[in-house]
Design goal:
With 390 residues, the chain is mostly helical. 80% of the residues lie in helices and 0% in strands. It has 17 helices and no strands. It is globular and about 55 Å long. The relative contact order is 0.16.
Length: 390
Amino acid sequence: MTKILNKAAVTSLVLSRTVYAVNWYNVAAVFTFIAYDFGQNVSGLGLATASFYIGVGIFQVPGGILAAKVGPRATAAYGMLLSSAAVLLTAITSNFYQFIILRFFVGVGMALFFGPGVTLVSNYFRRESQGVGVGIFNGAFYVGGSLGLFAWSVLAEAAGWRMSLAVGGGLGILGAVLLFIYVPKEEWNGFTVRVSDLKKILSNRWLLLLSLELLGFNAGTTLITTFMVYYLEGTLSLAPALAGGIGSLAPFCAIFASPLFGELYDKTRKPRALLFSLGVLLAIAIAIVSLGNVYSAVASTIISGFCAGAFTVTYLAAREARAVSNEYQTLAVSWVNNIQMVAGFWSPVAFSTLVVWFGYADSWLIAATYTLVLISVILFGREKPTHNKA
């Protein structure tokens, strides 16, 4: 039985994670309207997505260091506040260049929230249920993703894309307020971040392999969640609401996959087989989009959503690595997330370029191959923690 130590804190973290995901995905849902206003095409979507991922990526490690220095609560709450304020500003931007810059700052705030959020939510579950706790936290991300892709498509049609983004930003600020109110302040009295400890974490082989594996999963799932709605509207001529509904199937399925694989991890503590199996399925999911019909698109989004359980397994494996002391749990998770975000920023840019050159069919097949190669590196790692619990 899952045992929660602080229900109010967990609830506020889960709600914040949900809104966080809405503001992550909703741009993909409304980009058709944004592209019309600013005279953009699929390349513009790729550029905006890359800017966002650069922000999310390069601030993962600084966020982890900040959390070790001042505590996860403050880092997560202020990160949520920053990302939400930037989302609000995108609703009033006057040109596409401002939009790209603001998406970078949305990513920065989300980077500060993510790692501390994983640490906080796992600490509010008993040891035997921490995998389920992180799975629920990740499941909330996909609840928000489903809402962002579907509900925000409908909202943009009814009230315009600017109003839809303003709603997301306002909800995010509310989430930050809940974090300040319901997540208890930690006993965090000037912990010293040592350079020698940082070197141990950043050079840890198991964490590096987890990072590369996660890069593969991120590249694959990002292409599905970012380009699927636009692909269905532009290539298969589906209405925005229907395209958004199909696109939302991926995060919807991930809602259930995240806690399921968290529970499997709690029982096995052996992530390699889980991660590689899910990687093969994800590559298949991307490849079948090349068939070029609605049925293959639906199948792809469902399978890729199921494969998102890999993120829960990876974050748990990183947290359990114990490269150094427990104060660095957030940094370990952030470091694993950092590489896949920084290195993965070019994935949407490369994919959109491939589409312009070769069309969607060949581009989906190339992306599937690239994804499988990256995920396969996990077979060369060891699974047991590298440091005993403090």
